[in-house]
Design a protein that fits this description.
Helix Hairpins; seven-stranded mixed sheet; alpha/beta; 8 helices; Rossmann fold; 2 domains; rod-shaped; single chain
């Protein structure tokens, strides 16, 4: 059950409860000649099912009215509880199934290429290498719907014929899930050196043998990036996607 259906059904339950509530007040006023306050109190007692004493003895018609009111009240309560229960069970089950589906994508994956960084450069590099029949995993760290949870949301994974896009920030948990330990190449193509440095540090901790390619606009950053573990550092002002894709 999706959220739209859940809220629609819950709204119906709330409307029905409201109608029964006001029907109860009106019924006590008309049938038993209660004051508005007494009618309100008696209706609350019935709705809460606490079993407090009546304001005054009921007439035969009043007893029938209260019996019908209680039956409708129980039915609507049951309906509302079933909606909420079904929603949470379905949501938890759906999350579990999606989690397993995502993780199965990477079970036997090896020698794949992991790419993250500037969107335009990533797209350009991918367009050059996807024809080589390699599994490519794109980690889109800049996506507006990034999640901070401990597993990859299926809603944030796009799988297209050996090209998998994940909308999530890079961290140790994510790299483990996408099998960085069996990957062949890791490309970190951010324009900011500090982001590339952070990614290189994380990747090399998990797979010291992986080939790492990074980029930089600053010639002075090459030694720093290589010191962190980058095998190749490309100067964006000189070398483009064609050369980067030829490195593997």
């Amino acid at each position: 059950m999706n959220s739209e259906i859940f809220y629609k059904r819950l709204g119906i339950a709330i409307i029905l409860l409201s109608l029964i509530f006001f029907t109860g007040i009106s019924g006590f006023i008309i049938i038993e000649d209660y004051s508005i306050f007494d009618a309100f109190y008696e209706t609350i007692v019935i709705f809460s099912t606490v079993g407090l004493s009546l304001v005054q003895p009921l007439s035969s018609i009043g007893r029938i009215f209260v019996s019908i009111l209680i039956i409708f009240n129980i039915c609507i309560y049951t309906y509302a509880i079933s909606i909420v229960t079904a929603y949470f069970i379905d949501r938890n089950l759906s999350k579990s199934l999606k989690k397993n589906k995502v993780e199965k994508l990477f079970v036997n994956m090896s020698s794949h290429v992991i790419i993250c960084g500037d969107k335009n450069l990533v797209n350009e590099v991918v367009s050059k290498i996807k024809s080589e029949n390699k599994f490519i995993v794109i980690v889109n760290e800049n996506h507006e719907n990034n999640f901070e949870n401990n597993f990859i949301e299926m809603d944030n994974v796009k799988n297209q014929n050996k090209l998998i896009t994940i909308n999530k920030k890079i961290d140790e948990n994510l790299l483990t899930k996408i099998k960085v330990n069996t990957a062949k190449v890791f490309l970190t193509l951010h324009k900011k050196d500090n982001l590339n440095i952070d990614n290189i540090f994380l990747v090399k901790q998990l797979n010291n043998n992986i080939k790492v390619v990074s980029v930089s606009d600053n010639p002075n950053s090459e030694s720093k990036l290589k010191k962190m573990g980058s095998d190749e550092v490309m100067n964006l002002s000189i070398i483009g996607a064609n050369y980067i894709s030829s490195l593997f």
